[in-house]
Predict the structure of Lipoprotein.
Amino acid sequence: MHRFARRARNHLTMGLVVAAAVATTACQPKTGEVQTVGPAEPAQRAATSFVHCVESEGGGCVTLDPKLGSWDAFALLHWLGAGSPTSILQALRRELEHHRDPYAVQNRFVNVTARYREPLRGAECSPESARPIAELLPRVVSHVQTRMKSLGLWRDEFEQLVNGLASEADDGLADGWLVHMTCFGDPYEIWVATAKEDERQVVVGMLTSLPAWLDGGPLVDEHVEGRIRNRSVSNTTTLGVIREGTVDTRWIPIPIEEF
């Protein structure tokens, strides 16, 4: 009898030890990799939400924000690096006066979003990639400097202007992103700029094209034809696209710029 009781106690003790080991193993924290949100994810979500808002509200999605001025400074640098030299000489003073007025800067963005409200509807745009604006800004400044020197426009006052715009852009966009969104329909691709406000990303600007020196490129023929088809004068107020070679320059009574 005592032998049976002792054997039962031994079995009970072993069972408790096994149960304790299983419980200890179950309570140990997992040491595997934990899925985290990528650094560009908040900016991509903000861009997606903004595009959905534009589809519905157009210019009503734009609010007055000091960081709009930072994006306008970046956009001016982008224009100096990609725009027509003649247009730069003719319009630079006016654009700088415009840039000094925060309400004019806001209205510019309102007009852009209002113009693209109709094309974005049904285009089904989604984020493709995102790049920190802090990485793009030095490339823009370097390209502007090289280009202005090649055109003979680089002077001390121009250098001060470029440095001032770059500083303003960096102040507001240091933690911002340029989100590349691709669409199934016209406009096929857009770039949405975000800036960090408190702990979230907010949209401060938008581009509809990006030059090759910023890793952009021309639209493929299919997309160009889609824009021509979708943006006729009868159904939209947005500008259409004229393909190279469509217009015979011999019939235009004005000089054509060649660069």
Notes: The chain has a mean pLDDT of 80.
